[in-house]
Write a structure and sequence with these properties.
Blueprint (H helix, E strand, L loop, with lengths): L2 E7 L10 H9 L5 E8 L8 H9 L5 E4 L2 H4 L4 H14 L2 E4 L14 H42 L10 H12 L4 H8 L3 H12 L13
Parallel strand pairs: 1-2, 1-3, 3-4
Helix pairs in contact: 6-8
């Protein structure tokens, strides 16, 4: 049996290796060592997890996939969680999570009956904790969307202020007859911005100090 540690954080700004010392201490307390560590910054709500799949590819039946918390392994939808569970089961890998005490027995029990009992219990608890992790993910996204909608309704979220200096230059270039490709290359402005400014010229409005979302 080899212990393979999996460490995950959602964004590049977060420290995926934050819990590594806790996993090492957990193993040392049981006279075990971590054979390999797989670390990545990917969303737990996605199956795009190169390091997790490399861990499974490297694993052999009976190996342990060690995680700090179940949500490090999954914030997946039910369908995607079922896919991942199937991959783990096919490899014969046992999931052990620091926040799931019943799973700790999977690292020491060699008795066939006891192993099957704990495997059944842990499978049920993993499903429950994975569902809770997904609900937490969905709840946070919903609250975030509600907050953004409220801020917009109250006028606290507006479009970016227009780059007046740049747009004055674009208007001058448009009036001088320069091509859009030339203007885009020179200013970095989008073609939609050029279109809006061209319409402004056509309408006789050349004040670049108005706020235009997306300018």
């Amino acid at each position: 049996m080899l212990v393979r540690a999996y460490l995950r954080a959602s964004t590049k700004e977060q420290d995926a290796g934050r819990a590594k010392a806790d996993l090492v201490d957990f193993c040392q307390a049981r006279g075990l060592t971590i054979a390999a560590t797989y670390e990545e910054n990917e969303s737990g709500a996605s199956l795009h997890r190169p390091q997790l799949f490399r861990l499974l590819e490297d694993s052999h039946p009976g190996d342990v996939l060690l995680i700090e918390q179940v949500d490090r392994l999954s914030r997946l939808t039910e369908a995607d969680w079922d896919k991942l569970k199937g991959m783990i089961k096919d490899k014969g890998v046992r999931v052990v999570a620091l926040d799931l005490p019943t799973s700790h027995m999977m690292m020491t029990s060699d008795d066939g009956f006891t192993s099957r009992m704990f495997d059944a219990i842990n499978s049920m608890l993993l499903d429950m904790l994975a569902a809770i992790a997904r609900k937490d993910y969905d709840d946070r996204r919903r609250r975030q969307a509600q907050g953004i909608a409220k801020a917009k309704a109250e006028g606290r979220m507006k479009g970016r202020p227009e780059d007046a200096t740049r747009n004055e230059a674009i208007i001058a270039m448009l009036r001088s007859g320069q091509s859009w490709n030339t203007i885009v290359g020179a200013t970095g402005a989008s073609r939609s911005t050029l279109s809006r400014l061209a319409q402004r010229i056509k309408a006789g409005e050349t004040n670049p100090n108005q706020t235009a979302p997306g300018a």
